[in-house]
């Protein structure tokens, strides 16, 4: 190379110093934006929500709708459970893609409500609610089905929520 300097040890130029400082500031900003508060939710579920005051009410409304759907399920009120979905919602499960609330209802009746009531009790755990836009959120977590004299079933889900005139509702549910 003709020089006694090793590669990678060139003197730092002014543009490099600026780039390094900007990178450090960007990393600090990203880490601050990604900080979360974790704590127990109603029913003891683990929940992660952003601490931004402007989003706290939205996260609480989504959590409340999830709680309403679980209560409806556990009371044997399938329409209450399904009220968490918009009419045009899609769901991806073990049998593939299902379209519309009627399709989701059929899937639920075939798999979990064969006797006209739920076979097991539903609860959620490990919920994480994150905004992905001003009127959209993504919710991930674990569903837990217990009781009914059958082995417990658990699985993970990702749901996409939108703000509607009726409140926050699911437009897509991917459960496995």
The assigned CATH architecture is: Roll
Q: Which term fits the overall shape? A: globular
Taking the sheet with the most strands, its summary is: 8 strands, mixed
Tell me the distance between the termini: 58 Å
CATH topology, what is it called?
Answer: Nuclear Transport Factor 2, Chain: A
Would you list the SSEs in sequence order as H and E? HEEHHEEHEEEE
* CATH level 1 class label: Alpha Beta
What oligomeric state is this?
single chain
Strand order of the largest sheet: 1-2-5-6-7-8-3-4
The helix fraction, in percent, is 25-40%
Number of structural units classed as domains: 1
Report on the structure:
The protein is of the alpha+beta class and 176 residues long. It has a single domain (36-175), classed as Nuclear Transport Factor 2, Chain: A. It is built from 4 helices and 8 strands; from the N terminus they run αββααββαββββ. It has an 8-stranded mixed sheet with strand order 1-2-5-6-7-8-3-4, covered by helices on one side. Strand 5 and strand 6 (136-146) form a beta hairpin. The protein is globular. The chain starts with 13 loop residues before the first helix and ends with a strand.
């Amino acid at each position: 190379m003709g020089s006694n300097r090793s590669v990678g040890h060139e003197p730092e130029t002014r543009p490099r110093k600026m780039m390094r400082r900007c990178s450090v500031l960007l990393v600090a900003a990203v880490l601050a934006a990604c900080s979360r508060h974790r704590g127990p939710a109603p029913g003891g579920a683990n929940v992660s929500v952003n601490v931004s005051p402007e989003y706290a009410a939205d996260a609480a409304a989504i959590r409340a709708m999830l709680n309403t759907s679980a209560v409806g399920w556990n009371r044997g009120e399938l329409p209450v459970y399904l009220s968490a979905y918009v009419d045009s919602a899609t769901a991806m499960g073990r049998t593939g893609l299902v379209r519309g609330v009627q399709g989701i209802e059929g899937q639920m009746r075939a798999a979990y409500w064969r006797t006209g009531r739920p076979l097991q009790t539903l609860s959620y755990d490990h919920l994480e609610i994150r905004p992905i836009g001003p009127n959209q959120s993504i919710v991930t977590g674990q569903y837990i089905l217990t009781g009914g004299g059958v082995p417990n079933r658990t699985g993970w889900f990702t749901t996409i929520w939108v703000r509607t005139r009726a409140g926050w509702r699911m437009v897509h549910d991917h459960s496995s």
